[in-house]
Every structure is written in C-alpha cells, then in structure tokens.
Amino acid sequence: MLNAMCAFVLVAEDDEKQAELIRRYLEHEGHTVAVVHDGRAALDEVRRRPPDLLVLDVMMPRVDGLGVTRVLRGEGGGGSGSGSGVSSSAGIPILMLTARTTEDDLLLGLDLGADDYLTKPYSPRELMARVRTLLRRARGTHHPVVEGADAVPLVLRAGGLAVDPVRHEVTVDGRLVECTPGEFELLAALAAEPERVFTRPQLLDRIHGSSGYISVRTVDVHVLNLRKKIEEDPRRPRHLVTVFGVGYKLTSAAAFGAAPGAGLGAVAGRGA
User: Fold this and answer.
1) pTM score, two decimals?
2) What is the pLDDT of residues 128-140, one digit of tens each?
C-alpha cells in the first residue's frame, strides 16, 4: 500500500491554470497526479484507475462535482460486490473545491458523500494540509493498537457492529456498510469510547483536525448519513443517539444484534 506521502490523486478542475497549479503542488509533495477538466472525464478516469484521493471542483461542464459525487457514492451498492469493477469508487476520499459560499451549498456536497471542502479562493498550503489529512484518515494511520511486541489493531465492536481501522471497514451483522472516510472517522471515535457524549466541536476535531474553516453542521450531516446506514429506523435511532443540548454518543443500551446489556467495547483481533 502507498504511504500518505505517495498517492495517486485525480484532480477534476475545469480551470486549466488552477488545475496546473494544483498538479504542481501535489507533485512537489511526491504524489502522482492525473488531471481532467469535466465531470464525465472524472467518472471515466475513476473507473479506469481508482485514485487514492479525488480533488473535485463543483462547477464543471457536462457533469458537475455534485453529480460526480452522487454517482461515485451510489456505486458499490453498499458493498454487495456486483462485479462491475467500480465498487471501489464508493470509498474514495473526495475533497471538493467550490466557489459557492453559502453553508447550505457546502453541506449539500457533504450530504452527498464528500469528505471535505475548500471554498475559493484558498491557499495552496491549506489545500495540501487537507490532502494530507484525508490520506492519513483513509489509511487509518492514527488509530490505537494494543501495546506489546505483537501489537494488534483494535477492532471496535457493538454487538453486531464492527469497526475495523486496519481494513477501514464497517459491518453490521456481517453486512458490509460503505462509509466515507469522514463517516468512518466519526463512527470510530464514538465506538472507541462508548457512552461518552461528544460535543460537535470535539467530533469535528476528530474528523477534520484543528481547521477553523469547517462548520460544526458537518457533524450533523455525517450523523444523519450514518443513521441511514446502521440504524433499523433512522428516524428513531437506538444506537447513534442525540444528547440534546450537548452532542452525540454511541449507546450500549441497545447493542446491535446482542442481548440486553451486552455493551460496546474494543477488542483485539480482526473484523467480522
């Protein structure tokens, strides 16, 4: 596997000068870069050679960035393995670049499955910092392990729910659940400390680090998307619950597929 400083990055940006600037900065950090200038070409390139990261402009011809995100996150069928050769695209980290400045526009991209966004104009240094963060997160390079000579990464379990930081997989009762890197990081943070109530700023820091450019509403979008994937009834969540006036927690009161009181916890070993 490539390390975080040597990745294949696809840049989809219709402004050729801007695309070339991004390419130069990425290549300076050791990445291999492909550049396309419209959404249809981006989809074709992803299917031909899935990248480690997609830097995606929102305003593009043919298919815009929101449309590209919608298609990519829809592919993979929740891990069903259709054999179409494109299922891996569902988990590709997506960093959106947008000239839209209203919060609703930005959150729409996150709701569709983007992992992070930058508003134009942005500094190239900020862009590279976001790239490094997304690559580290996608590869699970900062998750805890069991100490000792034969260190084994922790698999976080809640009855039938398993969060595997090494495989970067989430399963519910053996069913693979496709999560974006941001959703995975949020769920892993909650599962690592069951019953702890996290504020939105605390969860945002786990997902995006100390950047001050991201709205705390990003956390709400990730939570809503996760509930659709792991809850039997997303409108009445029993596991990823809201603590009104504070934030969110992953509760052990109604463990996935387990007897009452079975609880959550982190155990050494591989995923289900």
Assistant:
1) 0.61
2) 988 988 887 777 5
